[in-house]
Design brief:
The chain is about 45% helix and about 15% strand. By secondary structure, it is an alpha/beta fold. It has a single domain, classed as 3-Layer(aba) Sandwich (Rossmann fold). It is globular and about 45 Å long. The N and C termini lie far apart (about 40 Å).
């Protein structure tokens, strides 16, 4: 079976993506940097879905760790750059180190993993990369300037990489989720989330990690889509 790498898959959207690919018949490599117990659960779910689980402890912002992870991968066909962190902070109160850390994980991580994947995908004769951005990369979010800017950068990176790599048979796309029921939104109370959905989401509910995973799987499997930004936001950004 071919191998899929999903970064940041110890929980949430990343875990759902990993399991979706296992159910679709792939072996799934994934990385995590903090949640060992969560990573063990992801590995269990991948195996239960019929795939081989290949967990890596790796920080995607670290060049050496990324290179070591990719050197151990065989049969790589698909890369999902999902690893990301958020920061809820006013601009005036955002430290430079916090700003740079968000970009290190969300943007540098996607760049390093894409760069490391290219030789393996070229050797295979092609493949695909799917980046996980956000609707805030298109619309911007108050008090989330670093996160919004990093996700906007990821959209630009996706489009540039799609144009550059298409002649080599490598497709590059991204999904832009809206408000999804995951731990990343834990800084918002249930009441705040319900109010946001009521005022901003035409479908009147939060999305699920599984719905994002199915969008990623669609982009990975469609042979004639590249450079696309697929919105999974319930109509919040149209």
């Amino acid at each position: 079976m071919s191998t899929v790498l999903v970064t940041g898959a110890s929980r949430g959207i990343g875990r759902e993506i990993a399991v979706a690919f296992a159910e679709a018949g792939h072996d799934v490599a994934f990385c995590f940097s903090k949640d060992k117990a969560g990573a063990e659960e992801t590995a269990r779910l991948i195996r239960a879905a019929g795939g081989e689980a290949l967990p890596f402890f790796a920080d995607v912002s670290d060049e050496k760790q990324v290179e070591e992870m990719f050197s151990a991968l065989l049969g790589l066909e698909i890369v999902v750059n999902n690893a990301g962190i958020s920061l809820f902070s006013e601009i005036a109160k955002t430290s430079l180190s916090d700003w740079e850390r968000v970009f290190a994980v969300n943007v540098r991580g996607a760049f390093l993993c894409t760069r490391a994947a290219i030789p393996k995908l070229l050797k295979r004769g092609g493949g695909c990369i799917v980046n996980v951005s956000s609707m805030w990369g298109e619309a911007g979010a108050s008090c989330e300037s670093a996160y919004s800017a990093s996700k906007a950068a990821l959209i630009g990176f996706t489009k540039a990489a799609a144009k550059e790599l298409a002649p080599s048979g490598i497709r590059v796309n991204c999904v832009a989720p809206g408000i999804i029921d995951t731990e990343m939104n834990a800084h918002l109370s249930r009441e705040e989330r319900e109010a946001f959905v009521c005022e901003n989401v035409p479908l009147l509910r939060e999305g699920t990690a599984g719905e994002v995973a199915r969008a990623v799987l669609f982009l990975a499997k469609h042979p004639y889509i590249t450079g696309e930004v697929l919105r999974v936001n319930g109509g919040a950004v149209i």
